[in-house]
Amino acid sequence: MARPEATTAVREQEPRKERMGDHELGNLLAALGNHEGKALLSAAMVRRKVYADHDVHQLVISKQGDRKVWGNIDHGTTSNWFRGLAAYNDIGTVLTDPNDGTILGYQKNKYGEEIGDAFVGHFLTFSETYPETSLYQLNGSTMSNSKPLQGEGSYDEAEFRLRSPLTRFRIFSQLLELAKERDDSVEQLPIREVDLLNALRVAYPNDYSFGDEGKGKQSITNHLQSLSQNNVLTYDSAESEKAYSFYQLSKTPAEVPPASYKTQKKLTERIYSVLLESPESILSSQDLYERLTVLYPEYVDISRNGFGGRISSVLVHLKNGGYIKHVGKFKSDYQSEIELSSNQRQLLTEYVVLIEKFKMLDPQFLEEGRVKAAQIVEDPQRFSALLEKAKNTSPMANASRSEETKNNLRTIIATSPGITRRGLQRLYFQEHGKHLSTQRICTLLLEMRKEEDEEKKIYVEKKGSTHCYSESPIEPEPNLPPEAVVYTASDQ
Questions:
Q1: C-alpha to C-alpha distances, 210 to 149, 165, 198, 218, 486, nearest whole angstrom
Q2: pLDDT band (50, 70, 90) for residue 452
Q3: Which of 18, 172, 315, 401 has a 20 to 30 A CA-CA distance from 66?
Q4: pLDDT band (50, 70, 90) for residue 116
Q5: Model pTM greater than 0.70?
Q6: Which residues touch 189 (CB under 8 Å, ≥6 apart)?
Q7: Residue 462 is inside which H or E element, if any?
C-alpha cells in the first residue's frame, strides 16, 4: 500500500518588513524564547529533512555528547517541543496523514532556518551569560486564556493570542522606562504596580485595558509575583483585603489629650483610650473596629465601611497631632512596590536591548545569530549545559528526586541557619551544580515545614518581606503587624 502523501498547512513566506511587529515577536518568543530545550532542538534540526518521533528524540540525545545531562528524556517530551515550535511563525511543520490525521513526521521550515536559528543563537548566548536565570523563569509559560487579537497588517491576519513571553517583555520595557524617570526625578518615588499598569495601558491600549473592576490586573500581579520569586525583579505589595496601615502609640507621652476630630469627640476619646491601654501594640483600623464594637455595642449597627472610614480619619488626625505613629510599609496610595537591583536592571536592560535589536531584522545581526546557533549545536559541552539548565527549571523534569533534594537542602540549612530562599538557591547551585527554580524550591520548603517528623522539619522566620530558614523553631516577636508573621504563597 502506498504511503499517503503528507499534508501541510504552511503559509507562504511574505517579504520581510523593515521591523518585526510585536505580534510576530510574541509568537517567536512563545515558540523559542521560553525554553532552552525547544530552542536547542530547533537549531539542531536541518531544514527540509523529515524527522520521525524517534529521530527528534535521538537528535536531542546525541547532541549531548558523552555527558548525558538529560539522557532519560522521553519521546513525548521532545515531540511536544517540536509541536510547540510548529504552532507559531512557521518555524516547523507537523506532517500528517490526510486520511486519519496520524502524525508522520516533523520538518523545519524556511522561517525556522532564517529567522528562528538567528533568534536561537542570540537568545541561547544570552542564557549562557546569566546561568542562574533560565528562559522559562524569565518568560514564563506559553499557555494563554486570552481571546484572539487582531493581527498586524501583512504579517498576521490570522489568530494571535497574547501570551506570557510578550507581556513580560513589555513589562520589562516599561519598568526600565519608569526606573529611568525615577532616577531623573527629585523625589525618587518607588515604582508602584499601578504605575506599571498605567504605562502598559498607554503604550498598548488595544491589548491591556485594566477596567475599573480590576479586570486583567491580576494577570500582571501574577507575572510580578513569579518574576520576584525567580529574582528577576523585586516585588512587594499589601495583602489583598487586609489592613495596609498600622498605628502605634508614640513613645513620647502626650502632655494634653488630643483635640477632637471634627464632630467625632466621643470616638476620638475612645480610640485614644484603646491605644493608651495597649501602648506597645500595633493596631490597624480593622483591629480598632473589632475592639470598639465589642466595648461599645452601639457601634455594631453602623455600616462597617462607613464606621471604618471614620476610624481611619481619626487615626490620621491622631497621627498628624503626634499622638500615634504610622507603622508599616504601605499606605492607601502606596500599596505595592517594584524594585530593580543593579544586577536585575542589567539583566533586563540587556534582554530588552537584545530584542529591540533583533526586531530591526538587520541581515548582519541575523547572520551572527545563525552562526552562534550552529556553534552551540556543534559543541556538546555548551549544548548539554543549556539543556541541563532547561531541565533543572522544568516542573515536569523535577517531579522526582524530591527526597534527595530535600536532604541536600536540610544540610545547607543546618550549616547556614537563618539562610534565605535565594541564599539556598545559590548554595545549592554551587554545591550540587543544579539550579532549583523558585517554584520548585518554594514547594519543597513548604513540604519540609509541614513534615511530621521533627528531625526532618524546618522552621521559618519572616523578617520584613524576607523568609529565613532554620532547623530549630523560631518564636515570632510579639506585637508585630500581621505581615511580619503571616506567610504568603509567593514567599514560601
A1: 16, 19, 9, 9, 29
A2: confident
A3: 401
A4: very high
A5: no
A6: 182
A7: strand 459-463
